Amino acid sequence: MRRLIILCFLITAFSSAQQIDFNSPHNIKSFANHLFCEKDYLRAIDEYEKYLAFEKNDTIKFKIANGYFLMHDYKNAIQKFKNFPIESDFYFNAKLEILKSQFLNNDRLAFYKMTEDIINSNSYISLNALKLKNISLLLNERSLPSKIEFLSPFEDSTKVRVSEFYDWKLNPPYKSELVSGILSTIIPGAGKIYTEEYGDGITAFILTGLLGYLAYRNFENDHNFRGWVFAGTGALFYAGNIYGSVASAQIYNARINFEFKEGVKLFLEQKNFFTPVYEYCK
Amino acid sequence: MIKNKLTFFCLLFIILFAFKAFTQTDWVRWDKADLPYEIHSIHEERDYDLTINSPSDLILKPLVNGYWFFVSDVDGANCPFSPSCSSFFLQASEDTNPAQAVLMFFDRFTRDTNIANRHNHYPRVKDGRFYDPVSDYMLETEKINYIPPNTYLDK
Hints:
The structure holds 2 protein chains of 2 kinds.
Chain A: H1 2-16, H2 25-37, H3 41-54, H4 58-70, H5 74-81, H6 91-104, H7 108-121, H8 126-137, H9 147-151, H10 156-170, H11 177-186, H12 190-194, H13 198-220, H14 224-270
Helix pairs in contact in A: 2-3, 3-4, 4-5, 5-6, 6-7, 6-8, 7-8, 11-14, 13-14
Chain B: H1 2-22, H2 57-75, E1 81-82, H3 85-95, H4 98-113, E2 124-125, E3 130-131, E4 152-153
Helix pairs in contact in B: 2-3, 3-4
């Protein structure tokens, strides 16, 4: 009986122990898909290239190019996306991805040339290219078109936000350095309060006021040397406060620029740069 | 049988006792640890530089180096900013001119005196100090590199 059980076990064990062909195209592709979903794009690309040796597949080629993009290797991504012929189903999607890669790679000349080509081609991606081009104008020093022309490619749901960006670009809420300096000249610290540096403004006011008062009291009591020391120090703090107010207005304006650019970049990321979202790993 | 059991229990007792005997570690009396309590000061790497590159260095560098040697290095690294106020002054005089450097210094001193809400205004460097470079206060907008507050910088 025991021998019979052992024999049955051995027979079932050997029959189940089939060789798995890890190098079959199907398994290579499955492994590559798994790596891609695990965000191991470099190895996924290697496996996809192996797969392409067996079978030409535009989806796989697109995924390879996308893999380079997701690794922020924009140069290689652009090169791979350019390999799609016009007959391919992915031709227009690839063009959009090239545009996105050129934008992120700060290749402005190539970016604007390509947007013009796509817009003039009147294809179904022309609107996406126009949207991306218009938003990109907010991030550099090129002149903006009229508001109606700028907002025309956007849907109503995004027009409000884009309109805010447009208005901000034309009339940024800067603080005037001159006003800041004059306010601090009249009342020490007022210029800093104007530039929303409330703590620094109050400190400047107290310091200057205190030193001025100490100078006055010392002169009143004929302590001239001390009076001049406090007066001199107070004068230096007063001058420093005026200088600092002008500088704080400049820093405030730099902050406005920074927040604007970050806001536009965040908006673009939320919209995926007006390109389709590809969900490979459902 | 009884003899074997007795032998076994004797051996067990000896082994257990041996473990206990050799777990004793306090053969040496504990002594007071000699710990250095000084806070590591960045000023140990202080660059005491008295080279005169301009007429203003004749007054400024001895003044600042003297302050470092007699006051700051004795008192410790107390400035909450990086660079410290004295270093800020020296760097400002090198990057601009002495008059502008004096104004920048007094403005910096005012901001140093304000202890409220600094963490909402300045980024931080690795050692926790607030990053406040000279380049932001030279009145040249292209040199201002705005970094949001609460950002930690490597350098």
